[in-house]
Design goal:
There is one protein chain. By secondary structure, this protein is of the alpha/beta class. The protein has 34 helices and twelve strands. The protein has a ten-stranded mixed β-sheet, with helices on both faces. The chain has a two-stranded antiparallel ribbon with strand order 1-2. The longest helix is centred in the first third of the chain and has 56 residues. The radius of gyration is 39 Å and the shape is elongated.
Length: about 950
Amino acid sequence: MSERTPLLHYRLSASVNESDPQRVVQERGAAAGPAAPGPSRRRQSAQPQKLTTFFGVVIPTLLSMFSVVVFLRIGFVVGQAGLYQAIAMFLVAYLIISMTVLSVCAISTNGALDAGGAYYMISRAMGPEFGGSIGIMFFFANVCGSALFVLGLVEAIIDTFGIQADTAGVGGVRVLPSSYWWALLYGTGILLLCLLVCLVGAHIYAKATFLIFLIVIVVLATIFISFFAVGPHAVPLPQTHANSTVSYANFTGFKLSTLQGNLGPKYTVDYTTGTQMTFATVFAVMFNGCTGIMAGSNMSGDLKNPSYSIPRGTITAVIFTFIIYNLLNVLVACTCDFLLLQKDYSFLRDINLWHPFVTIGIYSSTLSAAMSNLIGASRILYALARDDLFGRVLSPAKRTSRSGNPWVAVLISWFLVQMVLFAGKLNTIAGIVTIFFLLVYAAVDLACLALEWASAPNFRPTFRYFTWYTCVLGIVGCMVMMFLINPIYASASIAFMLLLLLVIHYLSPNSSWGYISQALIFHQVRKYLLMLDVRKDHVKFWRPQILLMVANPRSSTHLISFINDIKKSGLYVLGHVELGDLETLPSDPLQSRYDSWLSLVDRLNIKAFVNLTLADSVRHGVQHLLFISGLGGMRPNTLVLGFYDDCPPKDQLLERQTLSGSSLDILSSGMDPEEVTQFNFPALRGSSEGDGQAKVLLAEEYVAVIADAVKMLKNVALARYFCRFDRAEVLGRRGGLFVDVWPLNLMRPDSSSYVDTCSLFLLQLACVLNMVRAWRKAQLRLFLCVESGHSTRGPEEKLGQLLRKLRIKAAIHTVPWDSVVALHWHKQGGETRETGVQKAGREGLEEEGDFVNSFPSNATRLSDEYLRAANRLVLEQAFPPPAVRFLYLPRPPADTRLYQTYLHQLDVLTRDLGPTLLIHGVTPVTSTDL
């Protein structure tokens, strides 16, 4: 097996017809990869001659569409439904299959086809999940169809040679018992004959079908002649359980009274199954005469030029059969009494010029159709196995003979057909076969519709006689007829297909076919992005759209997972800046990194985009990302940075507790620590591999990044100590889960405002976190800092009223902080000691509206003692300890000389606080309006 597979792949690649330029372009690259086989191996793997349009498509399709219906059920349809409804049935059936034929022609002319027929078309158009599930359904349809034709042949044999049959129509030859088990034995023998032909190969089958085709055409000619040449006479009816004596019905010849008697429906009990017939049950039987349109497509792997042969051959066969069926309907209705049509399904034999002609035609056509479905089922199964959609389950079906015949797939198909033969009667499984084929036809129409709607530039079939209207009409027609025939079978088949789709999706097979879903999503997203007008944004529908800057994902998985929780269905972008100059590099170094980043996103099970950029500095890189990230109305409005400190980074990808909290547990997911090396991320600072690496970002540049974001009207959040944050441990903690919010600018105690833009942004983010399912049990604690000399009741009531208006549930805790405020320069008389020049400069830098959230211009007077006191104040309120804190982040100073001071004071203020977000908001994000 392992030796034959490469040879088989080579044969499939090398057998491309040179007249198909697209196939040549696609296949030559693959053929040029491995070394070409030697001359002896080439001779062994030489392909037999490919089939032409007539032999490979027209003949199989004609024989599959004629088969049982034209010889054994054409009278049944007219006798039960009447001429009007019979013609209506064929019109509806051919309308449905014509829409499907148009879709098949469009898909088959859009590129090179390989073995698998409709499965190959659907899977390559719509991806492995949908294609694989429909492929299995099509396989079962062909299996049941083969069994149906075998049972039709058994019925004809018993009717001709069975001991219970009337002797007048068979020349007295009554030698075959006709019980259920005998019929099963006859069917098994016929199926064995089909198996032998199919095991030899498709070309022997093609030669056999040509001979059968000639026989069928001659028989059909004698039938048409017989309607005119044979005079009126009585035809003996076969014995039934309800009628123990031989009775007769009339072949009247062309009579107006006979035609009038056959115009309307006369639904009665089917004498082969004993069930009452209806429009739906008769249509189910009749439609089997139309299900052979895929017979030519199933031979796609054996055709010289599938893209040329399938459209022309299929359309030719469909037109020819439609004309023949309707001519037979009219002739039968004009010449045969309805009793003859209802009680004798083999009446065409009895009215023929020479009775054995029709018998030979029945045997030949049904045998050919059975072989056609059997070989079609085996080709579909082989294609499914070769695509590895179901893992090892179908791997034996990959085995082929030296000539390329998938003999194991043939044997499996034969076995399943044998199981279906236990149903016993043709009309019993006719409805199942019809529903299966209708479902497959609907899938083909859906595939073509999806390709048309996706508007992909590479979808340009040479067959253009279709539109999305024909595809929709085909889908609707198939679905309506499925449920009219049998709602239970239809619902069960659709449920089974969806189950297969989920199984294949769970198995996640790798494929390079392309996914139509991606093309459709792209098409729709582009359309809706154009409709997303930023001028129509409203604060009521604001949501966080976050750009998280990540220096090295190895040390940031905790933070990445936490920020994923506060995005609230908004845009989430992971940004990274790579330092370098593209002009001096041979290629873009970022292209090789994307796969690692996307794999990380999959492993962490987060919903985020990745945006990498190359820049000469981190500051310029962040500016690039803030300018270009997103599209249209979906752009980041919030920048999140890790805190600038000297904490040594840890490789969180190797920590089991980190990964388990992010749905990335190494042990539970079966990923070994060595497997982490698949992430193409650089080593961390301070690691054995990264020793000597220094920070690439200076403190001044870090603060400048924050200042740039504020200038661009982006909200900013600084995340500190999230290296200590374990999401699984925090959410699984027994007892209370708390989120602390400090809405006051602790660096400006001279302003006690709690309702500025920045404070409300803190509240909004905390509320968003609380709305996430995993964080709903968390309690928000809002800390209100007050001085003992002021009344606390007023501010607390005012804040509580605001929370009620904003629909935010939070517990308000009053915190006295006189001892802390006493250490502030403002309370120490600093304002009086400020010179006039200093005061004028501060007022120039701090406009009235920005006073609360700004960094004080004379921040050098903020002593470390005050900041440490404020830090202790926050720590003292940490019982029970919160999972995360939200603190007020003042705007960076306008004077760049104060950047170092700004960063130092933030460091002192937040030291040892645990996971903390310092947040600065610049835009309104809350609304009290309905």
